[in-house]
Specification:
Oligomer: single chain
Structural class: mainly beta
Number of strands: 5
Strand order of the largest sheet: 1-2-3-4-5
Strand content: over 45%
Number of helices: 0
Shape: globular
Distance between the termini: 32 Å
Helix content: under 10%
Order of helices and strands: EEEEE
Length: 62
């Protein structure tokens, strides 16, 4: 199983959510779901997804 940590691209030290197992995108609305089934919804766009390294960066809307 591949899990990812999602970061804000403009602040690489800022973790949005860890152990993400699913990412759903609808326009600029991104729904992150972790391995426990908890969800977090943010506005932005996916900037980069490194699936081997388990890292996703998001351009967050301000």
């Amino acid at each position: 199983m591949c899990l990812a940590t999602v970061y804000a691209r403009n602040n690489p030290d800022s973790i949005i959510l860890e152990y993400v197992s699913r990412i759903d995108v609808e326009g600029t609305r991104i729904t992150l779901t972790d391995v426990m089934g908890d969800t977090k919804i943010i506005e932005g766009t996916i900037a980069m997804a490194d699936l081997t390294g388990g890292k996703v960066q998001i351009n967050c809307a301000d």
